[in-house]
Design a protein that fits this description.
The chain is of the alpha+beta class. The chain contains 16 helices and 13 strands. α2 runs antiparallel to α4, α2 packs across α7 and α15 packs across α16.
Amino acid sequence: MSVRNLYSVAPSAARLTDSLRDIGYDFPTAVADVVDNSVAAGASRVEIDIVFDGSDSWVMIADDGQGMSANGLLEALRYGSRRDYGRGDLGRYGLGLKTASLSQCRSLTVVSRRRAATARTVARMVDLDLIAEMDDWVVAEPEGDEQVTRARAAVAGSGGTVVLWRRLDRVLPERNPEGGWARRRLEALAGKTADHLGTVFHRFLEGDVGGGLVITVNGEKVRPWNPFAPNEPARQVLPPLRFEVTVGEATGAVVLQRYVLPSRDQFSSPAEFERLSGQLNWNRQQGLYVYRAQRLVQWGGWNGMRGIDEHTKLARASLDFDTDLDVVFNINVAKIRVAMPPQLRQLLERPVHELCLRADDAYRKNSRSASEGAKGASGQLAAVTRGDASTGGPSMPVVGLALRAAAMRAGEYAALQRIGETLRAEAPDVAAALGFRD
């Protein structure tokens, strides 16, 4: 490209920082993005305090990771950090710490100390009011007030990093930040944050990834929520599938693992069944759970491949990809949304419909018929999936399963249900033989 003149047009710091506050975070997802940095820093423990003190309420996120030097901390507070992200790193754009924090507060302070014995503790602050006043990308050294002193004490021993949010203008009500509603809101957000962290970091909390991670919220240990009920003996696990995806210059592997969770009467306990219903409840928790570098980034629904159905609410599937496919999945800055590449969508349609067929069958069986007929139904379904006609003509139950599978693929399952209702009224023997139960 040939040019005659170049002009530097720096963005207005005041205007741009204010715009970036609306990038898509809510309180739990903002906290989770900060915890991403703790995980990347090798932390084994992250302690989150959400403290109500009227308009002076604050949030502190402290970890025992490797910490940062003075220069490293300044770079971390740069919008669009120049650091390089390696494969498997939870970071992506160099924006998360700033955009996540300032989406909730007007003052962000970071206190950090490296693990080395000779390291010193450093503290830096990004203040939106100061940036608006100067209209410049400035970072300040905070005064040693009560919260900053507490943060320094937290990293004084073995090192680590503390992120401090103050002036929580996006969290507390503007008119009455001192009132009971504001207190109850912070308490509710603490609970929602613990649930969210237990979901998105469940593999880390369970020890499946890294050396194990402990997260606490207001002193309470966060319990991992594994959507696939690994301790339930009655769940069905389908064989994993691996797909190679290439879009432009990006190439990588995507792994699909499918599960049919037990029906209510086959769960180990009613309480466990309720717990596994999740934050969105059973119907909306069905679908794909998309993991990026082992961290859950999106869940609920089938990414446009099919609709949510009461009869398939027991179907859940994990879809794993690594950071080398970030451009393919078009992951957003907040790391809470992905776009399914069309090439992969086509590959997933058949195994997803097979999973939903099995989930529908499990939903319709009571515990007794499920235990007695599981082996036979599984073999029949496998025969339908393979198109196996070695035993001669298909039996009536197999025909019924095939009809339901075809209706799902054609998007006409509701029509098939109406046909089943008519058959049950006019030809109940035929309806029973085909598996059209009430």
